[in-house]
Amino acid sequence: MCSTLGRTVSSCFRPLSRYARMKKDEEIDGLAGENDSLLWSRDLERHYRGEFSFAVVQANEIIEDHSQVETGRNAIFVGVYDGHGGPEASRYICDHMFRHLLRLARENGKISKDVIRNALSETEAGFLSLVKQAYAIKPSIAAIGSCCLVGVIWKGTLYVANLGDSRAVLGFTDGLNKIVAEPLTKDHNASIEEVRKELKALHPEDSQILLMKQGVWRIKGIIQVSRSIGDAYLKRPEFALDSSFPRFHLPEPLRQPVMRSDPDIFTRDLQRDDKFVIFASDGLWEHMTNQEAVEIVHNNPRSGIAKRLVVTALERAAVARQIPYSEVKKLEQGIRRHIHDDITVVVIFIDDEMMDDVNSGPELSVRGFVDTVGPSNFNF
Q1: In this model, does residue 3 exceed pLDDT 50?
Q2: Do residues 165 and 189 touch, judged by C-beta distance below 8 A?
C-alpha cells in the first residue's frame, strides 16, 4: 500500500488524460519560419506554475532529437534528448525516463536528486540491455547514444540533471529589472578545457584519451561529448566494434569506460525574480549565447517564443553558410544537416502570481519526435 507521501507524489503526476498536438507553420509576427516543413511548435500550454512553449526543427534524415513535457497537478517534467549515431537511444529515453522517475518518486514519496539520478541509471541500464540483445544482429547499435537533459519543478523546487551538451538556462531579473542569464548546467564536451582536464585526470595512462580531429578535441578521436546514455562501445569492452566500423573502431581494448553516464544535478528553490527556464539541445547554443537567448525570450511576446529562438538560430546558421534562410527551407532532411543540427527548445515560464497558488495545474503530455516515415507522421 502506498504511503501518504507516495500518494502525494502520485497526485502530482496523475495518469495523463489530455494530449497536445504540435503544429506546423504557425505564423508569428516578424518571423521567417512559415512554410518550413521541418519546423513544428506548440504554444501556449499551461502548467501548474505558469505556461510553456515548445518547438522542434529537423535537420537529419531521421531526427535524432526526442523530447517531452509532462505536466501534472503540482509538477512539471521536461526532457530534451539529443541523440547521435541514430535515434534509438533518444527514443528509448523518451519512452522510459519519465516512467522510471514517476515510479521511483512514488516509492520514495518525493522528488529528489537521488530519485532523478536513479531514474537515469535505470534508463542507461535498460538501453544497454537492449544493446546487448541486439548486438549480434546489429553491432552498430553499440555506437548509438544520446545526451540527456531533464528538468523537474516540484513543490517550488527546480531540479535539473544533465548528461552531455544540451543546456538549461534560467532567466531572472536583477535589482535594476534587467534580465540576466544563469546557466543551470555544465556542458560535458571535450571542447571545454575543464572537461579535458577531467578526462586526463581520470585516464592518466591513456595518451590517446583526447585527440584533435577535424579541428576539434574528441575522446579517442571519435566523439566530443563526455557523458551520455548509450555509446556502449566506449563503456564496455564486450561491445567493441571491429575494423569493419572504421569510425568507431578502437585500436586497443578498453581498460575502463572512457564515457560516463552519471549526471550533474542542480537544485534551486524558485524565487519571485526567476522568470523562465530555457531547455535546449546544443543545436540552439551553437548560434547564440545564454544572454542572447534570455533577452530574446524577455523582449518578445510569449506566444511562439520557442519557435522564435529556433528561427533565430536557423537564420544565423544560414548567414554563416552564406545562404538565405528562404533557400534553407527548401532543403530536405539530411541535406539540411550541412546547414544546422536538429534543434529542440522548451521555454518554461514561471509566473509570480502563481507562486503561492494552490490550484492544481492541467494534466498534459506534449512530445516532439518524428518517426522513420518522415515529417508527415510527426506524433506527439
Answers
A1: no
A2: yes
Distance CA 47, CA 199 (A): 40
Percent of the chain's residues with pLDDT above 70: 86
Q: Which amino acid is residue 361, in one-letter code?
A: G
Which residue shows C-alpha cell 502548467?
A: 47
Our CA angle for 305, 380, 78, nearest 5°, is: 55
Which contiguous run of DSSP H or E holds residue 298? helix 290-298
Least Cα distance to 367 among 69, 65, 92, 41 occurs for 69
Query: How far apart are alpha carbons 101 and 117 in whole angstroms?
Result: 9
Mark out the alpha helices in 51-112 (DSSP H runs).
Answer: 88-108
pLDDT given for residue 15 in this prediction = 43
Closest to 166 in 3D by CA, of 215, 110, 228: 228
Find how far residue 227's CA is from the centre of its chain: 13
**Which H or E element spans position 368?**
strand 364-368
Nearest-10 crossing angle of helices 88-108, 113-134: 140
pLDDT tens digit sequence for 60-97 = 999 999 999 999 989 999 999 999 999 999 999 999 99
The length of the chain is: 380
**The pairing of beta strand 50-57 with beta strand 343-349:** antiparallel
Which residue's C-alpha cell is 512514488? 106
Q: Determine the Cα–Cα distance for residues 299 and 178; give it in Å rounded to an integer.
A: 11
The C-alpha angle with vertex 54 and arms to 375 and 264, in degrees rounded to 5, equals 110
**pTM of this prediction?**
0.91
How many separate helices (H) and strands (E) can be counted in the chain?
8, 17
What is the rounded CA–CA span in Å between residue 87 and residue 316? 26
The confidence score (pLDDT) of residue 175 equals 83
